[in-house]
Amino acid sequence: MTAPVTPSPELAEIVGDKDLPRSEVVSKVWDYIKKHDLQDAKDRRQINADAKLEKIFGKKSVSMFEMNKHLSQHLTAKKA
């Protein structure tokens, strides 16, 4: 079990504002991407950001490998 992390206000628009384990954050972001059909049609590894995701990624499109790096910048670990 990983320690819960706090999403930034931008990320909270997608995953909610409760503290969650990092794996749960990633899972919820993927649910959002699939629900809104944001994977690129030609290259499924590319994610085409909508307005909410663009605030997190800082650009229109990221690879799924890059995505975790951007998510990290929007997560704060709880102080023990």
UniProtKB/TrEMBL annotation:
<dbReference type="InterPro" id="IPR003121">
    <property type="entry name" value="SWIB_MDM2_domain"/>
</dbReference>
<protein>
    <submittedName>
        <fullName>SWIB/MDM2 domain-containing protein</fullName>
    </submittedName>
</protein>
<dbReference type="InterPro" id="IPR019835">
    <property type="entry name" value="SWIB_domain"/>
</dbReference>
<dbReference type="InterPro" id="IPR036885">
    <property type="entry name" value="SWIB_MDM2_dom_sf"/>
</dbReference>
<dbReference type="Pfam" id="PF02201">
    <property type="entry name" value="SWIB"/>
</dbReference>
<feature type="domain" description="DM2">
    <location>
        <begin position="1"/>
        <end position="77"/>
    </location>
</feature>
